[in-house]
Amino acid sequence: MALLPILYADKTLPDFDPPKKPKRNKFAIAIAILASMTSILLGYDIGVMSGAAKFIKEQFKLADVQIEILSGTINIYSLVGLAMAGRMSDWIGRRYTVVVVGVIFFVGAILMGFATNYTFLMVGRFVAGVGVGYALMIAPVYTAEVSPASVRGFLTSFPEHIVSAHIYLYFTSLLPI
Question: Which positions fall inside the Major facilitator superfamily (MFS) profile domain (predicted)?
Answer without folding.
Answer: 31-177
